[in-house]
Description:
mainly alpha; Arc Repressor Mutant, subunit A; 7 helices
Amino acid sequence: MKFSSQEExxxxxxxxxxxxxxxxxxxxxxxxxxxxLSQAYVAKLLRILRISGFVDSxxxxxxxxxxxxxxxxxxxxxxxxxxxxxxxxxxxxxxxAGNGDVCAHTFSCSIRPLWHRVQTAxxxxxxxxxxxxxxxxxxxxxxxLVPRDELADGAHPAL
Length: 159
């Protein structure tokens, strides 16, 4: 199971914009520097996010990118679907890579229901989580996930 870099960094670009608010824009160069990504890659991600209706762009000296909607309105399920898709797609078994014409388990697969349940669980979490929810730091959101020695030292892991 993998989460693609496009999904990860697309979300991070949106978070940069969300931290600025809806009144302030950021340029590709600003986001690139803040995230340590190439400007070409940030431009690619922002293009996808703009076409999908998550960001707006303005040209010119005062231009840049802003969120198209409030962070509370941006569901991660929608954002991740635009950046990469789903973990388990219904047509997955239609593309059989074996030696025969079809999978030997086409009609009686014990694994397919597992992937469907995993996808349903993922969909549930992503549907109820908004970009606003990610604005909290890891320590604020789930202190129990941070090793105690990091909390004791006063260190705060970066988002």
